[in-house]
Amino acid sequence: MSILYKIINWVIFLGYWIFITFIIIKILNKRRTIPYSLSWILIIYFLPLFGIITWVFFGELYSDKKKDKIASIILPQTTNWLKSLKINKSFFNIKNSDVASSVFKLCKNRQSLSGIKCNKLELLTSTKKIIKIIIQDINLAKYNIEMVFYIWKPGGIVDEVAMALIKSSKRGILCRIILDSAGSIEFFKSPWVKIMRNSGIQIVEAMKVNLFRIFLRRIDLRQHRKVILIDNYIAYTGSMNLIDPLFFKQSLGIGQWVDIMARMEGPIAATIGIVYSFDWEIETGKRILPIFNTNYTKNNFKNKNIIQVIASGLGFPENMIHQVLLTIFYSAKKRLIITTPYLVPSDDLLHAICTASHRGVKVTIIIPKNNDSLLVHWASKAFFTELLESGVKIYQFKKGLLHTKSILVDNQLSVIGTVNLDMRSIWLNFEITLIIDDKLFSKNLYCIQKEYINNSILINKKLWNMRSIWKKIIEKIFYFFSPLL
Q1: So where are the chain's domains?
Q2: Is 345:383 a contact under the CB 8 Å cutoff?
């Protein structure tokens, strides 16, 4: 009996270390940064049971084989569609500004598409005003309305959007909505799902969360885009979820969420429509490539807005967002302003930001003073010392949770969308962001960022260095969990 007991112990012991070795090999094969790999290895080594379980659910980017197959099929079809778009040479720009030249070349080479023009481009800030304009556009829709959101939380002014969609659907407008399963969990538990579907609206629950699917992909792989498309002509994207800030997460005591959205008209909607068609086919298996709107050429592009659309997820170039951010940071010559709710950059991005400051670029980062994520709240502080030592100014916004994701470079190049400066947005989630080469738009973005700064507290370098030892220890501990953020 004792011999059998020993054999069982040895089998368990060897099995455990074989499994640990297998995990470590998988981590190293991902070819991520050394700190990223070391963080996972340390978590597994010091907290074996917790580390293994966490890695199984969060460490590997599992994707349904069916979805991978669909993505491989979509790409050739999309390539053919893009060829038909490229025939209209007036839609595309020939030349970019100096600061935008490198990143636009990168995007053209990796995405096979030059920066595209739009007939109209607006930057919207007030959630109440944004939703009012969205409802107006929904009411005026003639053909189709398509949406994808991470969070749709029923209640308040958001219900007015639902009612507008129901009315449009009943008058014959084709309405399609994609909502993330985890982010919109309250919506899918509400009566609105049945009411809207009964009115003819097609609603898809993306990245469904259940026990079976955790063995197919990471459970924290999320559909994080925020997009609205109307008549293949009007497009919205930015940081705003479909929530009413007066009610959303108010129990946390962090104040109202502060967001921005861009509203665009023209052929830019077609390129954003390609992203939506990918998401729709991956979730449903049905193809809905956007149709050209005859209004694309009516304005003759009097505005000089030049935009690149960057998306991540199945079917899109790998690591594109990371490459774009690095290129932008290294292109800055005079000024770099970053707003992000979650500051957990990769080592490469951190180095690029610090290097920009060392080159004499005036670098400013604006983050919320209070965060809805305890992990991010502490982990982000682990980067403060190096940033401050490099001369970067860090402002903490005190009037709510600053949820805006934006970058301004040299008062000419703007980046806005759904991408946070953290590992989750850079490596994991389905994201979308716009790169806009336009001085007037950048001026408007600067005014908004300046307002954020006026409502923020500047971190004092000397006072920061005098913080207590226990805070420094907590920062380092949470830093090791950055791969999960």
Answers
A1: 2-59, 65-311, 320-484
A2: yes
**Rounded-to-integer distance, Cα 321 and Cα 420, Å:** 10
Specify the CATH class of 320-484 in words: alpha beta
Asked if 364 and 453 count as a contact pair (C-beta separation under 8 A), the reply is: yes
CATH superfamily of 65-311: Endonuclease Chain A (3.30.870.10)
Distances (CA, A) of 135 to 146, 288, 410: 13, 24, 35
How many CB atoms sit inside 10 A of residue 245's CB? Answer: 22
Band (pLDDT 50/70/90 cuts) for residue 366 is: very high
Tens digits of residue pLDDT in 423-477? 888 888 999 999 999 999 999 999 999 999 999 999 999 999 888 888 888 887 7
Q: How many CB atoms lie within 10 A of CB 319?
A: 12
Confidence (pTM): 0.86
- How wide is the angle at C-alpha 320 spanned by C-alphas 441 and 130, nearest 5°? 35
Spell out the SS3 assignment of 188-213: HCCCHHHHHHHCCCEEEEECCCCCCH
Residue 481, Cβ neighbours under 10 Å: how many?
A: 17
Q: Which residue has the tokens 């000419």?
A: 412
CB 127 within 8 A of CB 276: no
**Structure confidence at residue 156 (pLDDT):** 94
Active site residues: 224, 226, 231, 403, 405, 410
Question: Does 280 have pLDDT greater than 70?
Answer: yes
Instruction: Return all residues near 39 (Cβ < 8 A) that are at least 6 apart.
Output: 479, 480, 481, 482, 483
Helix, strand, or coil (residue 257)? strand
Q: What's the confidence (pLDDT) of residue 138?
A: 98
Domains 65-311 and 320-484 share a fold: yes
Q: The tokens 């409502």 sit on which residue?
A: 455
Q: What distance separates the 2 farthest-apart alpha carbons in the chain? A: 87
Q: Which residue intervals of 171-306 are DSSP H helices?
A: 185-188, 192-198, 268-284
Does the pLDDT of residue 208 top 90, yes or no?
no
State the Cα–Cα distance between residues 259 and 240, nearest whole angstrom: 5
Given a contact cutoff of 8 angstroms between Cβ atoms, the answer to whether 124 and 262 are in contact is yes
Residue 58 is predicted with a pLDDT of: 59
Asked if residues 444 and 411 have their Cβ atoms less than 8 Å apart, the reply is: no
Q: How far, in Å, CA of 248 to CA of 76, rounded? A: 41
Question: DSSP letter at 58?
Answer: I
Sign of the dihedral defined by the CA atoms of residues 60, 65, 67, 71, in that order: positive
pLDDT for 418 equals: 97
Structure tokens at 331: 């292109």
Q: Which residue has the higher pLDDT, 73 or 348?
A: 348
Decide if pLDDT at 60 tops 60. Answer: no
